[in-house]
Amino acid sequence: MFAILFVPMAIWFAYANWRRYWGESLVLMAVSILFLRWAFSRGEDSWLSSIDEIGRDGPW
User: Fold this and answer.
1) Distance between CA atoms of 20 and 11, rounded to whole angstroms?
2) Is the pLDDT of residue 53 over 80?
């Protein structure tokens, strides 16, 4: 959810005044990319891997 929120904010900071808000824009974009990577990782303890394993334990 934060990644979806931070991308438009980064674009808005870049559009508003790049020379003044370039740092904020780059930090918001980097943080949103990190949040997206964390949200969609399929690591051993991630929430996506636990959802994948729900169907594997069925009787079929």
Assistant:
1) 13
2) no
